[in-house]
Amino acid sequence: MIDVAVRNNVKVIGEGERTIIFAHGFGCDQSMWQYIAPSFEKKFRIVLFDYVGSGNSDLTAYSSEKYSSFRGYVQDVLDVIESLQLKNVIFIGHSVSSMIGMLASIERPDVFDKLIMIGPSPRYLNDGEDYFGGFDRSDITELLDMMEMNFAGWASFLAPLAMNAPESPMLTKELERSFISGDPVIAREFAEVTFLSDHRQELSHSTVPTLIMQCSDDSIVPIQVGKYLHEHLKNSTLRLMEAKGHYPHISHPEETIRDINEYLGVNLL
């Protein structure tokens, strides 16, 4: 019998009846929610976890075969939900976790109440004239090669680009440390699955009400992607944030908290 709580380093905090699951993005772990999660503790039960291969998860549970597509990560989410017998889940996913959460909600719409996507993208690669994802295939190949040849160099290159907060160098350093703390082989495999994925076809199957939080200047996810998602996701709301970068929950926590509260109709004062 798998102990999901141990495997995925599950933590449950908070006092509310409604449940928020916070799902971290690539190269991160649950600690990335430290700047916004405490603001929801009084009104919600909060579930934090690490995907297998990230943070303090059980690395022995990782297999390249299982996690060669989003399917393995979707299963992690569904396992956490089932192990805690959760219902009416508000799923807040950052970056790649936005699509992972959406896919989980398509499989089990009965247990999801709302999806909140921070910096989501259904496809990072450009696709002809019809779709601008922000990256050419050569960009991703270069990134993956860099991860393989110089993992520390990759982390120090990507962190400032992704954080885009030159006025807060400590936040960039924190992200760089998070990147480099992971297993290089697992991190590269997760990056490949993430950046080469294409989940545009599944968008029409998503029925759960969704908030798309799009940053104004995001080097990972351009504004066109947020607009594309809004057009193709039923029941979706697009919020264009003043925040820059790909990690508004770290660099602009107040705005992130405010936007989430407004969408959920909650007054946290």
From TrEMBL:
Keywords: Hydrolase. Pfam families: Abhydrolase_1. One of its GO terms (molecular function) is hydrolase activity. It comes from the Bacteria. Residues 19-253 form the AB hydrolase-1 domain. Belongs to the AB hydrolase superfamily. This is Alpha/beta hydrolase.
